[in-house]
Amino acid sequence: MSENRREFFRVIFHQSIAGEISLDGAIFFMPVEIENVSVRGLKFISSMDIPLERQVTCRFEILGSPFLLEGSIIRKSVRLHDIEYGVGFEVNQDTSSELFKQLNYYQIRQRKGNPMEMD
């Protein structure tokens, strides 16, 4: 049962956070705006047209903790001036647990009104 709760636990940022992605294991990272994150994936906005099922590496920080996660584009929605993407992560249990912990801390701070104030 706790695994199901983790599957659907998602933090929606009031203001998108800065992140980066690289395609197919490339060393070049492109900036993106991340709108939400869960242990299973994230949603980001970009002006770049990326095909579905493309392998990506996502790099971002939650409360000062860096994450570098592999995944693939599982959803794509064209908007007026940009494109919204859904990424499904391929993560191990340790990384999943650490991301869950940081997202939980972030959500607690978000409810208290100071999610970006860290330390």
Automatic annotation (TrEMBL):
Transmembrane segments: none annotated. Residues 4-102 form the PilZ domain. GO terms for molecular function: cyclic-di-GMP binding. Pfam families: PilZ. It comes from the Bacteria. Signal peptide: none annotated. This is PilZ domain-containing protein. It comes from Paenisporosarcina quisquiliarum.
